[in-house]
Amino acid sequence: MAEHVNDTPRSYSKPFLLAVCRPPGLIAEDEVAVIKEWGNMSDTELHQVSLLNPSEPNPATELELTKYSGVIITGSPFGYAHPQETKSAQHLLVEERVSALARRVVAEDFPTLGICFGLQTLARATGGMLVGGFAEDLQAPEIRLTDAGKADPLTGKLPAIFRSYTGHSDAVGQLPATATLLASGSFCHVQMVRWGKNVYGTQFHPEITTAGMHIRINSYGDTYYPAAQKSQVIARCNAADVKGANQVITEFANRFRCQLPA
Q1: For residue 205, what are the contacts with CB-CB under 8 A and spacing of at least 6?
Q2: Active-site entry in 91, 205, 237, 251
Q3: Is 116 one of the catalytic residues?
Q4: Tens of pLDDT, residues 81-115
Q5: Where do the domains of the chain lie?
Q6: Which among 46, 144, 209, 241 has the fewest CB atoms less than 10 Å away?
Q7: Contact 74, 20 (CB under 8 A)
Q8: What Gene3D superfamilies does the entry give (predicted)?
Q9: Cα 139 to Cα 153: distance, rounded to the nearest angstrom
Q10: Which fold has domain 14-254?
Q11: Tens-place pLDDT, residues 45-66
């Protein structure tokens, strides 16, 4: 359940498009709830499209993006480092669709926020490289804005140093020349990136609150942390204030929300 209350009055706007890269379930439901709450979005202001479902439209080719205020690309349990021969048809479909969407939003400089898998896709689509060795388990490391991040119209409204939940196996090892590093961590260096003026990506998870992290802790034992260490993982995650990271959703929505005439 989301933990943020935004008292800003809502007025009808173009919806945001949520490009969903994960199967249905508790994590997907929590993801949507938090994005709506921290983005101050009504039910009609977030249009969801599953990239895993071949019967739903392909946003890279079948949707008119100008009908939306912006795009949010979710995280995913599917990873690019998985051996190609082990990838399911669903895994291959989501990679194909999200990669095409990433190329499109960068080419059009269309307002976008790619989260974790979304950031990695944006990097790969623009010539960046993913590497191992910088994985982060379920924790909340410090994220520090770079000088470019402090000057950016979106991230410049965030605290200069904040905590955020993480959980990923791959990481961006080499940024493409067209990307600007906005935030970094002491271990995983590429934490937030911008392309052009309007395309953003985060390696950390601004859409996870403390309550949401408990859902993931219960889901990912022996995936992102040794299951025997569950109590320690809960303790360290409970100790972190991640509202500065959640604010990324708020600032993205506030910056790009397009109001419709009454």
Answers
A1: 75, 115, 116, 164, 165, 166, 167, 245
A2: 205
A3: yes
A4: 878 889 999 999 999 999 999 999 999 999 999 99
A5: 14-254
A6: 241
A7: yes
A8: 3.40.50.880
A9: 28
A10: Rossmann fold (3.40.50)
A11: 999 999 999 999 999 999 999 9
